Amino acid sequence: MSFRTMRAGRPTAAGLGLMLCLSLVPLDAAHGAGFASLRNPEPGRVRSFWTPERLAAARPLPAPEMSAARIAELEGALEEAPAPAAGIGSGVGSRPLPGIRPQLSHRLFEPLDAALRTEEAGVAGVFDRASGSTGAYFTSHRLIPEEADLFYPYSTVGKIFFTIPGQSGTFYCSAAVIRLRLVVTAGGCVHAGKSPGFYGNFLFVPAYRDGNDPYSTWEWSYVVAPTTWTQGGGTLPNAADYALIEVEDQIYNGVLRKLGQVTGTPGYVIKKLKPNHATIVAYSSNFDLGEQQHQVDAKDFKATSTSTNTIEYGSDMRGGSQGGPLFQDFGDNPATLKLIGVLSYYPTSTSIKTQGASIPDSRFTSLLTTACNHQSGNC
What is the domain-level CATH number for residue 18? Predict the structure, then answer.
């Protein structure tokens, strides 16, 4: 059943949106073992919330801005990241199941014409920027060809749409499939790090492009994040700014499927953000208004202090890119492809072209174990 068919005939009153938003306020969030989690109290209702109008109006998560003093502090922090420990956590990825085909006729909404969106963004296209004022070199470009997002491993990357209690409108971040039913994103894309706590109405759209959902839309059932983030006050950098979202199975190409069977899954490895070279894929509002995947290739640039457990890479992506994956050994071989982190923050100044990511460590593997054990078959 297509998303368009499922939308037909449902109520569209504003009251429905209000009811759904209020129902997802995390009054029953569970705290324990260093994690905070939330279950979807109304399974099956999220798709009806996401009308074409709400999807089209979604804007990038307003990330906490970093002060000039904090940027200066980061620029001066040259401490090395902790060396990888013996027996570090890792996992192998997998290709999509044979026979899976994208549903190219699916359309969520009509986006702006490409020429209009570049004009609205105030840019004429992608420029060769090489590095920012700090000298963090990188290569930034659109996917070549544009249709590459239909193939593994780009197919594992998508947009995560959500609402924020107490705020009007809808929002989005970037995210990636990591296990069969699990999506990884930034902690700041699921929880404020303080009141109001968890966000709601999570909907993951893998390989999203220009208002299309070639691999369908996937409704959340459970979300979990480290208390390092949820009780961290929402300040950045943060030592564990990542989270996992469990999604519901659905009928795809006539068969009940798990998300990872449709998109494939990357492998993962902890404590490998430095030293390393990464391919970063995300939806950034300063390129194509976040309507297409954008790619940056860069080497690690700088470690922050060990207390913030963060590595910065050269990058010119900004709003909406939070939660986007950093990959090592990027390519279509699931035996070698590894997710090594997710984007956390970007500086306030547009001249400082870097992005930070928390180093996945034992907190990440414990978080993944918790999410894997939440429901049989998640991993």
Answer: 2.40.10.120
